Amino acid sequence: MLDQIHxxxxxxxxxxxxxxxFFLQVIxxxxxxxxxxxxxxGPPEFERIxxxxxxxxxxxxxxxxxxxQAGLFFHQGLAAALGLLYLYxxxxxxxxxxxxxxxxxxxxxxxFLPLSLLRAERPPAxxxxxxxxxxxxxxxL
Length: 141
Prior knowledge:
The chain is an all-alpha fold. Helix 1 (6-33) runs antiparallel to helix 2, helix 1 (6-33) packs parallel to helix 3 and helix 2 runs antiparallel to helix 3. The chain has helices at residues 6-33, 44-73, 76-98, 113-117.
């Protein structure tokens, strides 16, 4: 049985690590802007980071359920590959959501595709991003 789920387990661990990274970003933002829990409002920069993290954690249980069901009942390799694509898209979404600019982050943006399949929340126009302003190594941004 273990030889049939190792890829799913690896993607699950990567997903948990990604969630931990998002949680740490909120902790660092709280310290940087002097916002102590349980407050969830503050400067727009903090609110974007907080909302991106909350949005990511809201969809994480759905992602895990779909990943494991698809891997166990259909094909482990395909489910793991799509899981990695989702995690990559979620990372790009997080980095884009936390950035600020005047260009809209629309469903046509490559980072939005995996998330639009699950109808993830789109950032408001006031919290939009450009492809060149995000300090990350995502080729989608």
